[in-house]
TrEMBL record, chains A, B:
Keywords assigned: DNA-binding, Transcription, Transcription regulation
Domain HTH hxlR-type: 16-114
Name the record gives this protein: Helix-turn-helix transcriptional regulator
InterPro entries in the cross-refs: HTH_HxlR (IPR002577), WH-like_DNA-bd_sf (IPR036388), WH_DNA-bd_sf (IPR036390)
Domain of life of the native organism: Bacteria
Taxonomic path: Bacteria, Pseudomonadati, Pseudomonadota, Gammaproteobacteria, Lysobacterales
Keyword presence, Transit peptide: no
Pfam family, one: HxlR
Length: 123, 123
DNA sequence: CTGTATCCATGATGATACTG
DNA sequence: CAGTATCATCATGGATACAG
């Protein structure tokens, strides 16, 4: 028979909002894109330069997604050749603290991991 | 020629720590697993019950990852049939506020999105 | 019950080439 | 420069069957 299943005492998991955001942070790039836009508006080419390993296709796709969700705005500049500038909306800026919180935990994770590795190396 | 590339004024992107965490939150399940463990320790079967749509293979994989990274501990219970209980370590608990922050932004995102949809419907 | 192994479908990404 | 189309590749997740 085994043990009975205990009812979860965790309140409604924030699954929907969470997956909403995580869906946006998807891939390995979206968080970086947002981060890169945290300062001044940046052009497509500048973003590519900031993230040398992202392909144009993926960068384009991420920007469209973020634009659709209202996190990023796109502005076409009247230059020759034409260029486009992307910036975070105020809604998009709300993600920054959350991203920062994650990065903060990430740093601790790496620290602990290295400490753990050292211990293992000694034994 | 076009515009010159402006140097990014964004300080060193927290790419490494970020991807460290996001790598852990990967898939669509890890955050939920962590959330489900935020209360009391839970057994494998209980977790499956909490997340009906996760497959045993994936749940197992996620738990192993989290265990390896020191976010989760696994304890085998001396029952018949044997069962295993998982709980968050203190390091793992540090992720909770960050996850909560994300969920918080997620709620706003959904709100804004719905408002946006209503506007579109009217026009 | 607690997993693990296998097979398969899907989705995300990179590279390349090409249009406006 | 900005962006898209196409193709090939790889990682991830689900289903199922099975082992301890």
């Amino acid at each position: 028979m085994g043990l009975p299943l205990r009812k979860s005492k965790v309140c409604p998991p924030p699954t929907c909002p969470l997956s909403e955001v995580l869906g946006l942070l998807r891939g390995a790039w979206a968080p970086n894109v947002i981060w890169q836009l945290s300062g001044e508006p940046r052009r497509f080419g500048e973003l590519r330069h900031d993230m040398p390993k992202i392909s144009a296709r993926v960068l384009s796709a991420r920007l469209r997604e973020l634009e659709t969700r209202g996190l990023v705005t796109r502005r076409v500049l009247d230059t020759s050749p034409p260029s486009a500038e992307y910036s975070l909306t105020s809604l998009g800026r709300e993600l920054l603290p959350a991203i920062d919180a994650l990065a903060c935990v990430g740093r601790k994770l790496i620290e602990e991991w290295e400490m753990h590795q050292r211990k293992v190396a000694l034994s």
